Structure formats: structure tokens, C-alpha cells
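Example (one chain per record):
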Amino acid sequence: MATILMVVSAADSLTMKDGSQHPTGYWAEELVVAHRTLMQDGHMVDFATPGGIKPTVDKVSLQAEAAGSEERAEDFRTYLDMIDVDLFAPLVLADVDTSAYDALVLPGGHGPMADLFKDRDLGRILVEANGAGKIIAPFCHGPAGLLSATADDGAFAFAGRRLTVFSNSEELGGGTGDNTPWLVETALREKGAAVETGPDWASFVVRDGNLITGQNQQSSEDVAREVLKALNGG
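Predicted structure:
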């Protein structure tokens, strides 16, 4: 049995390009599908957020249209209610001992664009985990968190690494559009990451050694299964 840390944004809003506040948080499908897939395989999953704040679910992600159907939306709501006791009191990111975990998983939603991308505690954890060869698996907007990771020499810790992320075309065409304050794909490219993208709104996973990334919410299960494969030495 592996012990996995799921790092979740604590943000409940994102400041947009025009200065307005866009309600956000984590995307239900991403957290639920990844968490359930890992737990069903017998692993232990701890939640951690900046400050140990209970994360906020993006309410849009619980709507039938966003979830794919009312049945799926109800499934996500039911699962979140079931694990609410764990979400209510996540670990404080600053207190996390990286050595206690075999893998890090970072689901998205726009929340990471508000806090995780610049969180120094997450940066420390990522650098330590990467140095130890531990599995690091952010997906959708979760790879924004990678931007927090600065090596001892001041360089971006994931420069040159192959990865994917919620694409610019997905953001502009079906995300928050032209009012998006910044584009995660662009930011990662500018930092030196070798970003690859697949078709919009289709599962696409990139693995580069210990780094496993997924492009969008449709990639949630495939990312989790790739994590399971890696934990089993595959």
C-alpha cells in the first residue's frame, strides 16, 4: 500500500484580467475520480492545502452540464459528502513531510492559478519529491502548481521536462475565455517546460519519468491509473 498526498487549492476565487472575482476552487470530477481510483486500489490518500483550509468545490463542476449528466453530477456530490470529514481538516501544506509519501497528486480547477502556482511550501515539497524520484502527478490546471518549484540554483525545477496541461485553446474556447488572467500552458512554456497537448476535451496523458501529467478533466482517470502503474514499478 502506498501513501499518496493529494494537494488541493484552498482558493475560492480567481482575480480575472478585468479585476473581477471569478468563483472557483477544485473541479469535482478531477478530485473525485482520482481519489476514488487510488483508494479503490488499496492506497492511502491524505489531503493537504495551503494553511490547512478546507478546499472549495467549483459549483459549476457539480452541474449536470459540466459533469456530463445529472447522474454523474449526483455521483460526484455523493462522493464528496462521503469524504467531507477528510476534506474538512486537510493537512497544512507547510507541515508536510515529503518523505512520508510515495506520490503527489494535484487535481485542478482554476484554484491552483490563484494560490498553488506561487506557494513556497508546495515548491519545497515538489523539489524534494522530484529529487527523491517520487511520483508527481498534476493534471488539468494542477500543473500550475509546478511553477512554484524553484531549484537551489534559482532555475525552474521542471525545465526541459515533458508535460501537458489544460491547453490555451481549451481555456480560451471553453474555460474562462479572453478574461483569463494568465494562461498556464504559456507560463510553463516560458519557464522552459516541454509542453505537449492533445485534442481539446479528450484524455491526454504525458509521462516523463516520475512526472505524470494530464491535460484536462477528461484525463482524470487515466492519470490516476498511470500513477497506479508507476507505483507498481511500471
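Caption: The CA atoms of residues 18 and 179 lie 7 Å apart.
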